[in-house]
């Protein structure tokens, strides 16, 4: 859902003729049609995931799961850290992706998908969302495609949760805690 703010303009007429001003008024604040960019340039956090309401919290969760999938393929943990700077679970995932890249390894499989999402619970600047997560079978392989470990089989429903904190500084939710099972 895209949230648009519509400002009303009140016009009042004057009965007297007035001369045009030589100066251009300065704007008190710049306005824009969209929020400032957040997230990877080619995969930014969508505006609907940045509203401070239940719908925004759920949209952010959905975006974040897709970001985890994307970054697993790219093996770049920075975007995960940027959107969850104080989230220990997020930092662990980001570190794992970075270490896998440094080892010239990669993941085969492992795509995450949401099964069920509960109605987000809002409390001030915080939102908590419970969800079920399906993880496809996954294994890490080296540069030649040889398995590094035994991997994991498909997991149909990992009972999970996320706590988001709304940041007025970036006009978005950020991940405070992530528990995947």
How would you sum up this structure, described in words?
This protein has a single domain, classed as Nuclear Transport Factor 2, Chain: A. Helix content is 23%, strand content 27%. It contains three helices and seven strands; from the N terminus they run αααβββββββ. Strands 2, 3, 4, 6 and 7 form a five-stranded antiparallel sheet that branches. The longest helix has 21 residues. The radius of gyration is 22 Å and the shape is globular.
Give a summary of the structure in a few sentences.
With 181 residues, the chain is an alpha+beta fold. It is built from three helices and seven strands, in the order H-H-H-E-E-E-E-E-E-E.
Give the CA-CA distance, first to last residue.
29 Å
Overall domain count: 1
Helix count?
3
Order of helices and strands: HHHEEEEEEE
Q: Mind describing the biggest β-sheet?
A: 5 strands, antiparallel
What topology emerges from the helices and strands here?
Blueprint: H1 54-74, H2 78-83, H3 88-102, E1 106-109, E2 112-117, E3 121-123, E4 126-135, E5 138-141, E6 155-167, E7 172-180
Antiparallel strand pairs: 1-5, 2-4, 3-4, 4-6, 6-7
């Amino acid at each position: 859902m895209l949230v648009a703010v519509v400002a009303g303009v009140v016009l009042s007429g004057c009965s007297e003729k007035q001369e045009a001003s030589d100066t251009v008024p300065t704007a008190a604040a710049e306005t824009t049609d969209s929020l400032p960019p957040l997230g990877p340039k080619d995969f930014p956090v969508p505006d609907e995931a940045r509203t401070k309401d239940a719908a925004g919290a759920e949209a952010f969760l959905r975006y974040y799961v897709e970001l985890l999938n994307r970054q697993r393929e790219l093996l770049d943990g920075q975007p995960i850290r940027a959107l969850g700077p104080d989230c220990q679970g997020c930092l662990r995932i980001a570190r794992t992706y970075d270490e896998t890249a440094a080892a010239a390894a990669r993941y085969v499989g492992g795509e995450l998908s949401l099964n069920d999402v509960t109605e987000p619970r809002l409390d001030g600047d915080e939102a908590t969302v419970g969800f079920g997560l399906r993880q496809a079978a996954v294994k890490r392989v080296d540069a030649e495609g040889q398995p590094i470990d035994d991997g994991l089989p498909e997991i149909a429903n990992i009972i999970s949760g996320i706590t988001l904190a709304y940041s007025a500084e970036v006009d978005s939710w950020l991940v405070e805690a992530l528990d995947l099972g």
